[in-house]
Design goal:
single chain, alpha+beta, 9 strands
């Protein structure tokens, strides 16, 4: 049995370490991390891009065993190890890592993007397609009267995406970075769009090899 109460305590302890102070003065590279799933495995793909041109510099894929099944607000414990392993294999560590998951926009203020940021001591941003919690007022998402993220419309006639700081980055800079990483007609920031294509291809390769 998985002791979710113990995991919750760990999350609450780690949440106190989250920093929303910008740690990178001059952003040169940005990466996207996207996860796909196949038969008990988590595939994490990371694409590192040049911040100005959004051209790909490096890509890495890792397939790791999922230690726990999916449970809302405990995503790190399923996906986190694969993300961290893929990041560790990069020769070009990015200035900022964008993860398709929440940052501080989380019941305990420590979504996957924040948790990974703390363990890697890296600047991270969370981006999701679904609002997990909070109230949106003038595109800002509030939880208990605290601004924790932004609703961002990136594509006409498409649902918005939700941006939240992960670690070592401010609310304002998180939004600026995501806006700078958009490349029409894609709905998601380009590093995440590229990583998503690679995680899906890796998944298909695993299925095709069986």
């Amino acid at each position: 049995m998985i002791d979710f109460e113990a995991l919750k305590k760990e999350q609450l302890k780690l949440a106190k370490k989250v920093s929303m102070v910008d740690s990178v003065k001059n952003i040169k590279t940005v990466a996207g991390a996207d996860q796909a799933y196949v038969e008990g495995k988590v595939i994490s793909s990371i694409a590192v891009c040049d911040y100005k041109s959004l051209k790909v510099i490096e890509e890495k894929n890792v397939a790791a065993d999922a230690k726990i099944p999916y449970k809302s607000s405990y995503l790190f414990y399923r996906d986190g190890p694969a993300v961290i392993e893929a990041f560790s294999k990069l020769e070009n560590k990015p200035d900022i890592l964008i993860i398709e998951a929440n940052g501080i926009l989380h019941p305990r203020r420590i979504g996957l993007a924040s948790h990974v940021g703390i363990l890697l001591d890296a600047a991270t941003i969370g981006v999701t397609k679904r609002l997990m919690l909070g109230e949106v007022k003038d595109r800002t998402i509030y939880v208990d009267k605290e601004a924790r993220g932004y609703e961002l419309v990136t594509k006409e006639y498409a649902n918005p995406i939700y941006v939240s700081p992960g670690h070592k980055i401010s609310l304002k800079t998180s939004l600026e970075v995501i806006k700078n990483c958009m490349m029409p007609p894609h709905k998601m920031p380009e590093p995440l769009h590229i990583a998503h294509k690679h995680s899906n291809k890796a998944r298909e390769d695993i299925l095709g090899a069986q």
